[in-house]
């Protein structure tokens, strides 16, 4: 009975604050914060340093990084035979350098048979390249299909890494690519 009431309150609260957000009374970011406070869920205060270069990732690398709190993880699903992928690549290199402290960009080659390509198709339904997917605290928060202007990429990285500013305890140890 207690669990059902907890779930009911969570749903009612989400709908109520969602309506306030719809009418511009509360922002979506504030909504997440309010719900977390009321239901007793909080975001971790630890984080790892991001990486300053794009990392060619395996399926296990992707899983490790997606489990990391407070790091913007960007999955770049690409193919070596894709011209727009080659155009996008130097722009992602620039983003990796600029947002190194707060992000990790993982290149996932879907054009080469193997575990990474299978994961891309099965878990992320990737059917074309390039595709970028942005993750923060294990949740997908955005993405793009196709080549994008550097200004649009920069805006997306800034938007999501701004949520990582503040006081965090840096975690020890290294993950693939760092």
Distance between the termini: 47 Å
Strand content: 15-25%
Largest sheet, spatial ordering of strands: 2-4-3-5-6
What is the gyration radius calculated from CA atoms? 18 Å
Structure, described:
- The protein has a 5-stranded mixed sheet with strand order 2-4-3-5-6, sandwiched between helices. A two-stranded parallel sheet has the order 1-7.
- With 178 residues, the chain is of the alpha/beta class.
- The chain has 6 helices and 7 strands; from the N terminus they run ααββαβαβαββαβ.
- Helix 4 links the parallel strand 3 (72-78) and strand 4 (103-109).
Topology, please?
Elements: H1 2-22, H2 28-39, E1 46-47, E2 55-56, H3 59-66, E3 72-78, H4 83-98, E4 103-109, H5 115-124, E5 131-136, E6 139-145, H6 150-161, E7 169-170
Parallel strand pairs: 1-7, 2-4, 3-4
Antiparallel strand pairs: 3-5, 5-6
Which key phrases capture this entry?
about 20% strand, alpha/beta, two-stranded parallel sheet, about 180 residues
């Amino acid at each position: 009975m207690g669990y059902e009431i907890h779930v009911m309150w969570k749903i009612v609260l989400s709908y109520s604050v969602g309506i306030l957000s719809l009418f511009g009374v509360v922002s979506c970011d504030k909504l997440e914060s309010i719900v977390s406070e009321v239901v007793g869920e909080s975001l971790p205060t630890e984080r790892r340093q991001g990486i300053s270069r794009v990392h060619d990732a395996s399926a296990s690398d992707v899983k490790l990084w997606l489990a990391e709190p407070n790091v913007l993880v960007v999955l770049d699903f690409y193919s070596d035979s894709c011209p727009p992928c080659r155009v996008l690549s130097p722009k992602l290199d620039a983003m990796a350098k600029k947002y190194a402290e707060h992000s990790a960009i993982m290149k996932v080659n879907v054009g080469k048979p193997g575990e990474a390509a299978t994961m891309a198709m099965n878990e992320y339904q990737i059917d074309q390249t390039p595709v970028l997917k942005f993750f923060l605290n294990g949740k997908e928060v955005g993405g793009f299909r196709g080549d994008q202007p550097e200004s649009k990429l920069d805006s997306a990285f800034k938007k999501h890494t701004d949520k990582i500013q503040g006081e965090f305890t840096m975690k020890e140890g290294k993950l693939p690519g760092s």
